[in-house]
Design a protein that fits this description.
444 residues, globular, 434 Repressor (Amino-terminal Domain), two-stranded antiparallel sheet, mainly alpha
Length: 444
């Protein structure tokens, strides 16, 4: 007899009562063995034992992180205790870094991705604004100049606020509706192009809010609408900015989407490069940001020479910008290139090089709090690769001080913290657990 659980409105059968392997004449997985959990229809407890063992986590460690005892974990694994409720199953899945819930439950018919980050309280309001279609409103749209002034304030607030998602989440619904209205009510072609440029930028700001939240369909709607609005605007900077974010969305979707990321990125660079001799600082900066993104994707592919070549080209573009210039969307500037070098080294799994680049980069010169926190997270990844977990945790603590909402939604940071909560070193384990509580991964 099978049980069920409900996740996201879906009822998913879980084979709670499948006969054990020993009943079929096969050995039940032991602490030492690590069989493939997909070769037989194993029960939940057996899958839990296999995945926990593969993670290198003891029953005592897993039980402690769950607020339970080692004997409780053993009872679940051996079938002496019933499978826990969905809330506990999800906590187990996160602690074991399970990428898809079916790995733990055994049900392959409904796949539920994990590590998407928690949903922000303002996500529903932003989603409603994106999905709205203002055809019948009689309200007069604000002029494009007014929208641009509000956008400038929104970007400034995003870079200066530690709770940047809360800040832009509060501003976005009205900005989205007003920008949509401005496009609809434009009377002339120049007015419409200006309104489309503003709308594209609003959607770009929106993508920063939506990223790493549990609504990938919304993220793609926003990214695609930004691209369409940017093309309609015929504004090179708007086109470059929308492409920069679309390329990131493709790359973050996984290796199967790297080609799509390159296609958007490189096609946009081919469009922008002829404009560079007479380009404004903003167009030069977005071109530099796109150039680095091409290197970032190359690093994800483990293409060392290509990755560093693009980084060198981006650095040359940064050197053409004024010393105090800072691009409001991408953070591209002279100072950011040190942080970008750390990212390339980390993605290439070059721990020593990442640490060397971290020493050379000065995070204090990065004006944006969330971007500074992101840099600290990349540094922490480098220290982890280099076998310096204590320095990695200390660096993540600095990231939390700079922008708590950045680390809360960053999967790399969460994985480092989770790994160190299982450390054999008591002090490191305690420090990691305290940080896990701060970023909402564990209950206080």
């Amino acid at each position: 007899m099978s049980g069920t659980f409900s996740a996201g409105g879906l009822v998913c059968p879980i084979p709670w009562a499948v006969s054990s392997c020993s009943e079929r004449g096969k050995a039940v997985p032991s602490e030492e063995a690590s069989p493939d959990p997909y070769t037989d229809p194993l029960v939940f407890g057996q899958r839990l034992q296999i995945l926990r063992t593969r993670k290198g986590m003891t029953r005592d460690q897993l039980g402690g992180l769950l607020g339970r005892s080692a004997s409780w974990v053993k009872g679940i694994e051996t079938g002496r205790l019933k499978t826990p409720k969905l809330e506990m199953v999800l906590r187990v899945a996160e602690l074991l870094r399970v990428r898809d819930l079916s790995e733990l439950t055994g049900d392959q018919s409904v796949r539920i991705g994990l590590f998407a980050g928690p949903g922000h309280p303002r996500l529903a309001a932003v989603r409603a604004a994106v999905d709205s279609f203002p055809l019948t409103t009689r309200r007069e749209a604000p002029p494009a100049a007014h929208l641009q002034a509000r956008l400038a304030r929104a970007w400034k607030a995003r870079h200066s606020a530690p709770d940047h998602r809360e800040v832009i989440g509060a501003l976005l619904p009205d900005l989205i509706r007003d920008a949509q209205l401005a496009v609809r009510q434009s009377d002339t072609a120049p007015e419409r192009r200006a309104a489309q440029a503003a709308l594209a930028e609003v959607y770009s700001l929106c993508q920063f809010f939506v990223a790493y939240q549990p609504d990938p369909a919304l993220l793609w709607r926003v990214a695609e609408r930004a691209l369409v609005a940017a093309q309609e605007s015929e504004d090179p900077h708007a086109i470059g900015a929308a492409a920069w974010l679309a390329a990131q969305a493709h790359r973050d979707a996984g290796p199967a989407h790297f080609d799509a990321a390159d296609a958007v990125n490189l096609d946009t660079l081919a469009y922008l490069e002829p404009l560079l001799p007479d380009a404004s600082d903003d167009v030069l900066a977005i071109t530099g940001a796109l150039t680095f993104e091409a290197g970032y994707t190359a690093a994800r592919r483990a293409e060392t020479g290509t990755a560093w070549r693009y980084w060198d080209q981006a650095r040359a573009m940064a050197e053409r910008l004024p010393v105090d210039y800072y691009h409001p969307m991408t953070s591209f500037c002279r100072a950011i290139m040190g942080a970008h070098a750390v990212t390339v080294a980390v993605e290439l799994r070059q721990g020593g090089e990442a640490v060397r680049q971290s020493a050379a980069a000065d995070a204090v010169t990065i004006k944006s709090r969330p971007r500074r926190a992101r840099h600290r997270i990349e540094e922490a990844r480098g220290y982890q690769l280099d076998g310096q977990p204590d320095v990695a945790l200390a660096t993540l603590e600095k990231a939390h001080e700079s922008a708590p909402e950045t680390i809360k939604y960053n999967g790399y940071a969460k994985r480092i913290v989770l790994e160190e909560t299982g450390s054999k070193d008591p002090g490191r384990r305690r420090r990691a657990s305290q940080l896990a509580v701060k970023i909402g991964m564990l209950a206080a």
